[in-house]
Amino acid sequence: MFVKKEKRNRAKEALDAYNEGKERRKKEIKEETSRWKRFWKWCWYLTTWPFRWAWMSIHDWKFLIIFIIVFLIVSSSVWGFYLAGLILWANESARNWCFGIGSFMWLWWIGPFTPFTQLVIIISIGVKAIVDRIGMKIKKRN
Predict the structure, then answer these.
(1) Longest dimension (CA), the chain
(2) For site-directed labelling of 21, which of 56, 70, 83, 88 has its Cα 20 to 30 A away?
(3) Is the pLDDT at 21 greater than 60, yes or no?
(4) Is residue 113 left, alpha or beta, with left meaning phi > 0 and alpha meaning psi from -120 to 50?
């Protein structure tokens, strides 16, 4: 019982520290005098927010597992071409085409700094919220 309370307190402290840092960063951006610099700082802040949130939440093993599953499901188009290349191993030209298309898709769409990463993080956040809500309903019944 004591361990659960301590764990909850640490999670609450981490969330409070994250929220304080977020509010401090927003205040710094609002105090910027140049409108152009303020615009780009807001763009950078809004682009990096999902990554920072994911980094903060990654200590939760449920989120890590959910993130990996969502990543594999959403990126299945790339894995499909790699799988086709492995199936067509005997035909060298077809194998090379499949690996080439899969690699191109990997670099173009799934690479870093693309909307794919943020999409996976957003879907993972939604799935984690649903899992947490279901867990709370089960705890209330017991």
Answers:
(1) 64
(2) 70
(3) yes
(4) left
